[in-house]
Design brief:
two-stranded antiparallel ribbon, 8% helix
Length: 64
């Protein structure tokens, strides 16, 4: 089961190319395990744009 992080993940076009802007819930992040000082997250494209314009979603990368 994926552990999704609440917040927004929106793709934007800049003069340097595409970027993904993340606004993540701190309380959700604090619940995640830390691997050697880092959180392991994955960003995946959504099939449809969310009601707040989200183009991607973020979840814990628990692959070992």
């Amino acid at each position: 089961m994926k552990n999704y992080i609440r917040g927004t993940a929106k793709q934007a076009e800049t003069k340097f190319g595409k970027i993904i802007n993340l606004t993540l819930n701190v309380d959700d992040l604090k619940k995640l395990p830390i691997y050697k000082g880092y959180w392991r997250l994955s960003v995946a494209e959504r099939k449809e744009v969310g009601q707040y314009g989200d183009t991607h979603y973020v979840y814990e990368n628990d692959f070992v």
